[in-house]
Amino acid sequence: MSITIPDPYLMLLIFVVFLITMFLLNSWLFRPLLAFMDERENSLRKDMDTAAGDNDEVREIQAKIQALFADAKMQAGKIIEEATESAKAEYDSKMAKIASEIQGKTDRFRAELEEQKLQARQELLADLSGFEVALKDKIRAI
Question: What is the pLDDT of residues 28-51, one digit of tens each?
């Protein structure tokens, strides 16, 4: 094996072609690629900041929603309580009215019954002489 020394002009030409290739790759590929990567990184950072801001806004909105729900529950409880009290008062007044009507009917019935009792007693007393005669006739028949 013999070691040969390459031609220095050829090596210089290869070196110049290498430098030109590096210069062209740097200007056409590496710089745009690095610029794109920096732009993408900045865009991602900006999106993350926006997302963090959006998360804060979402938390704020959720807190407002929770407050609205709590207020709605409280108002619903008050409305239910008021409706229950109103219905109970109406029920009590209707029951009192019905009880007074029933008491009135009972009093009228008792008065009529007492009147019929007195009338029946008077009729019996009026027919007492007739009963005495009929009773005496029956006793004599025996």
Answer: 999 999 999 999 999 999 989 888
